[in-house]
Design goal:
The structure holds 2 protein chains of 2 kinds.
Chain A lengths: L4 E9 L2 E2 L14 H11 L4 E5 L7 H14 L4 E4 L5 H9 L4 E4 L1 H5 L2 H10 L4 E9 L10 E5 L4 E6 H11 L3 E6 L11 H10 L4 E4 L5 H9 L5 E4 L1 H4 L5 H10 L9
Parallel strand pairs in A: 1-3, 1-11, 3-4, 4-5, 5-6, 6-9, 9-10, 10-11
Antiparallel strand pairs in A: 1-2, 6-7, 7-8
Chain B lengths: L1 E4 L7 H9 L4 E4 L2 H5 L3 E4 L5 H11 L1 H10 L4 E4 L1 H4 L4 E2 L4 E2 L6 E5 L4 E2 L5 E2 L3 E6 L1 E2 L14 E6 L1 E5 L5 E7 L1 E9 L2 E4 L7 H13 L7
Parallel strand pairs in B: 1-2, 1-3, 3-4, 4-16, 5-7
Antiparallel strand pairs in B: 5-6, 7-13, 8-9, 10-12, 11-14, 14-15, 15-16
The chains are: A alpha/beta, B alpha/beta.
């Protein structure tokens, strides 16, 4: 039986993690490679990096980070942010990432999913989806709409329809982020996660809103997600990966407990 | 020196990094002489069996792999490399290398868990391996050890003699198979944390002799 996955997410700008990350010993660590190592040793099942470097010229800094991470940790990790072409994908995968994620680039050009899947296999292609709840309309029958630019631009695309289309195009996994829940620490968007997860046959990573182990438990059970993305709840040392996994294990959720 | 066979089936970077991390040198090659003279070989691969076999046949590497296996030196299959050592695959009805009797099947759909929940295909993520027999390459692996899998097809050897470990995903399938100097895993040891690295290290030190 597959274990449910716990996936820390690191935002990286110009080669440094963006938040003043504090672990137990209260040390600021801005190096994504050190942080990846920390989470690898702590039992993370996978790691997600988002490159939020604004300038395209500085993207090679991220490639160097990916290369160094790949020499340091031996679990899968994915890289997203700024990936627009098959060449961008190839660069990141050859540097050693297991997967790449596309978000707004795929909304603007869905064929990038098919091209990536054809070139590297579906298992490499993660569709990142930013979703906002809206009024149900003919165009948005589920009441969940695809947004980009951090939620500022509504795309007029229904979230469920988009998830199904991406799966058909060859996405191997979906990272489903609720813009409404993101940053609230009040729990994942359960209705959305469950709806998407029940309708697609590829794994769904729930993202946005995790504040406690209870939230993760909810989204992995009732929410039917395959994995939970976490950020601040571990970055600031509030919880350790082990404490989260122990909690989930006690609740009967199968976890990778030995690493 | 570990020789990693490059037959254009996916990214070999992570296998190279893991072997180097363990302190072993390796080379990635598709040169017949290099492979035949290798001390030990890793046969990785990601992608589809049809494409992989086509490449192996066009380049003649399929024959090279059979010859290397016959030499008795240690041979490790990973993921797609593990599937195409069997006789045939349901994926595009492909005839494979046939180093081990049996075939490669697709997970049935719908695939249900013990409790009746619908399971997803591909089988992607961390899972355990129940060891059916001891093997030098699996030294230190416990029932709680988990490994990273990504696949929609699974190996089904004809004889239980070749089944070294099994994994449950709706059905029970062979996740580690072996024969003589060859051992092959459906999962990715290079992406499976410490237990995966332990398997790679054991393989790098293995003399190719079977457990029994």
């Amino acid at each position: 039986m597959l274990s449910k996955r716990i996936i820390p997410c690191l935002d990286v700008r110009e080669g440094k993690t963006t938040k003043g990350i504090k672990f137990k010993e209260n040390v600021d660590i801005g190096d994504p490679v050190d942080m990846a190592k920390h989470y690898y040793d702590a039992g993370a099942d996978e790691i997600v990096f988002y490159d939020i470097t604004a300038s395209h010229e500085k993207r090679n800094i991220m490639i160097d980070v990916v290369r160094r991470v790949a020499e340091t940790i031996f679990i899968p990790f994915s890289v997203g942010g700024g990936i627009r072409t098959v060449e961008d994908m190839r660069e990141v995968l050859l540097a050693g990432a297991e997967k790449i994620s596309v978000n707004s680039a795929a909304v603007k050009n869905p064929q990038i999913i098919a091209e990536g899947a054809r070139a590297f296999g579906s298992q490499c292609i993660v569709l990142g989806m930013d979703v906002k709840q809206v009024e149900k309309t003919e165009g948005i029958p589920t009441g969940y709409e695809i947004v980009i630019n951090g939620g500022r631009t509504h795309m007029g695309i229904d979230a469920l329809a988009w998830a199904l289309k991406a799966q058909e195009l060859g996405a191997g996994e979906i990272c489903l982020n609720s813009i409404d829940a993101d940053g609230t620490k009040e729990g994942y968007e359960m209705t959305l996660t469950r709806m998407i997860s029940e309708h697609v046959s590829i794994p769904v990573i729930a993202s946005g809103g995790a504040g406690t182990p209870e939230h993760i438990c909810d989204v992995l059970t009732e929410g039917k997600a395959d994995a939970g993305l976490i950020a601040s709840m571990v970055h600031y040392g509030t919880y350790t990966i082990k404490a989260i996994k122990d909690f989930l294990h006690e609740r009967g959720v199968k976890m990778r407990n030995v690493w | 020196m570990i020789t990693i066979i490059d037959y254009k089936a996916g990214n070999l970077t992570s296998v190279v990094r893991a072997v180097n991390h363990l302190g072993f040198e390796c080379r990635v090659t598709r040169n017949v002489e290099d492979i035949l003279s290798a001390e030990r070989v890793i046969f990785p691969g990601v992608g589809s069996a049809g494409q992989a076999m086509e490449d192996l046949e066009n380049t003649g590497l399929g024959q090279t792999i059979k010859e290397f296996y016959a030499s008795g030196r240690p041979f490790l299959g990973i993921c797609l490399g593990t599937q195409i050592i069997l006789e045939k695959s349901e994926e595009f009805n492909t005839t494979c290398l046939g180093l081990v009797r049996g075939e490669v099947k697709r997970f049935p759909e719908p695939l249900l868990s013990d409790t009746g929940e619908r399971l997803k295909v591909p089988h992607m993520g961390w899972n355990r391996v129940g060891l059916k027999k001891p093997h030098p390459v699996l030294k230190g692996i416990t029932p709680e050890s988990e490994f990273y899998f990504v696949h929609s097809y699974y190996p089904a050897p004809a004889s239980d003699d070749n089944v070294i470990g099994t994994t449950a995903h709706g059905i029970s399938f062979t996740s580690i198979l072996g024969r003589d100097n060859m051992i092959a895993a459906q999962f990715h040891p290079e992406k499976s944390g410490r237990p995966g690295l332990a398997i790679l290290k054991n393989f790098c030190l293995w003399d190719g002799k079977d457990a029994e």
